User: Which sequence fits this backbone?
């Protein structure tokens, strides 16, 4: 049964929609959390500490965080696998290019594919930068995310990587949210306009909210 659903195009699209919505929930929370940087070092670092102790005493130190990490990894793998398989299917259905100059995949499809690749690379960079400190520009100190974030956005490449990725994120969410709503059956002639507006507003809020942090550091509001 599960195998049949997964093998169908609709099944893969459902997996994409649900895993995408799970990641979207995480991003809304992450963006709100990041904005605490505007309230100073202790509030931001205290929040990062809370992320590790949330759920205590029922949960042990970092258990909730690890639970979130596992859910996110499952969502990312499911999203990427179904995206890859759907695009292979798409190419198999039309192996040759159109005779005229027309591109095989439309603008939205190509934006989603490239956006997905950029975001996948960004997530790896981001974790190596601000979670493990492997590629971090300053003297990375775990437990001191405020200073780590300031260091990241004190380099031209840090700002470039994050801002490009956030713009890709905005475009990806704008189209992805809309597609997910269609796949999950929320679309209808009367609701489509409202769904498009929700997708636009969500994408814009997330992009602005995330980009506010590098801009804050660049302008010296956060230092
Ligand atoms: C300007 C934008 C962003 C900033 C300033 C930022 C900041 C941070 C910081 C400081 C951490 C480490 C938190 C800690 O260890 O306490 C972190 C972790 C993380 N961020 Fe971001 N983030 C941004 C955008 C994003 C985006 C767009 C995504 C996803 C596409 C993302 C996904 C993650 C993930 C998965 C983690 C690892 C969580 C963990 O396992 O500990 N972040 N971020």
Assistant:
């Amino acid at each position: 049964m599960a195998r049949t659903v997964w093998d169908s195009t609709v099944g893969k699209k459902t997996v994409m929609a649900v895993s995408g919505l799970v990641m979207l929930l995480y991003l809304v929370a992450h963006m709100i959390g990041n904005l605490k940087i505007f309230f100073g070092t202790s509030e931001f670092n205290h929040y990062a500490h809370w992320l590790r102790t949330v759920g205590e005493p029922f949960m042990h130190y970092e258990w909730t965080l690890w639970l979130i990490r596992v859910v996110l990894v499952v969502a990312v793998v499911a999203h990427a696998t179904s995206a890859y398989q759907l695009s292979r299917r798409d190419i198999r259905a039309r192996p040759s290019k159109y005779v005229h100059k027309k591109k095989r995949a439309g603008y939205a499809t190509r934006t989603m594919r490239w956006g997905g690749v950029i975001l996948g690379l960004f997530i790896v960079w981001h974790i190596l930068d601000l979670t493990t400190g492997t590629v971090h520009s300053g003297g990375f100190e775990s437990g001191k995310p405020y200073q780590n974030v300031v260091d990241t956005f004190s380099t031209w490449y840090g700002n470039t990587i994050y801002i490009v990725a956030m713009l890709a994120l905005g475009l990806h969410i704008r189209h992805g949210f809309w597609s997910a709503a269609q796949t999950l059956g929320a679309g209808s002639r009367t609701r489509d306009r409202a769904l498009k507006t929700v997708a636009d507003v969500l994408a814009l809020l997330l992009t602005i909210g995330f980009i506010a942090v590098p801009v804050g550091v660049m302008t010296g509001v956060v230092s």
In short: The pocket of protoporphyrin IX containing FE is lined by residues 27, 30, 34, 48, 51, 69, 72, 119, 123, 126-127, 130-131, 145, 149, 162, 169, 210, 213-214 (CB under 6 Å). The chain has a mean pLDDT of 93.
